[in-house]
Amino acid sequence: MKDGCGEVNLNYYNTFILVAEDSRAEHGEIPNTKRLKKTVGEIQFELLNGHDYKYTQEDLLFETHMLHKNIPETAREEEKTTFLGKSQACMRTSPLGKRYGWGLYFNRDGYVKLVAMDSLEYRQFANQKDLTITRAMKSKR
């Protein structure tokens, strides 16, 4: 089964990514490492929280890359071509689902919404028959 990970230019559609089986989270936690440089999890949370259906997987991964690597806006177009030309880890590898207790719902157009694992909405998506349901990857094999 193709799951979006490691594929070039692939988004999820009508898919819900559940929290990883080995996650220790009991609820949707706000990533906060208090480091000087923000982590990938912190950046992704800030981009998604309160911005439902603004990003596709590709958009989110690229914006995270730009912010995490502190790439200037003047280099955006060239960087995007380079970034999208390579295989990328998908959102199943995101710390949001692996560590922090967040599910990711991708609608029919491929845009994502962050969903806390302790919410009614999470349970509804997890049991929705017309969605592809998958899990965030385990932290340990």
Helix and strand topology:
Blueprint lengths: L14 E4 L21 H9 L8 H12 L7 H9 L10 H4 L3 E5 L5 E5 L3 H7 L5 E4 L6
Parallel strand pairs: 1-4
Antiparallel strand pairs: 1-2, 2-3
Helix pairs in contact: 1-2
Any overview of this molecule?
By secondary structure, this protein is of the alpha+beta class. The chain has one domain. The protein is built from five helices and four strands, in the order βααααββαβ. It has helices at 40-48, 57-68, 76-84, 95-98, 120-126, and strands at 15-18, 102-106, 112-116, 132-135. The protein has a four-stranded mixed beta sheet with strand order 3-2-1-4. Strand 2 (102-106) and strand 3 (112-116) form a beta hairpin. Helix 1 packs across helix 2 (57-68). The longest helix is centred in the middle third of the chain and has 12 residues, at 57-68. The chain is globular, with a radius of gyration of 15 Å.
Count of the domains = 1
By secondary-structure content and strand pairing, the structural class works out as alpha+beta
Please count the beta strands (DSSP E, at least 2 residues each).
4
Low-confidence stretches: none
Please state the average pLDDT score. Answer: 92
Q: Specify Rg, calculated over alpha carbons.
A: 15 Å
Largest pleated sheet: 4 strands, mixed
Strand content: 5-15%
Strand-and-helix sequence, N→C?
EHHHHEEHE
Residues in helix, %: 25-40%
- Give the strand line-up of the largest sheet: 3-2-1-4
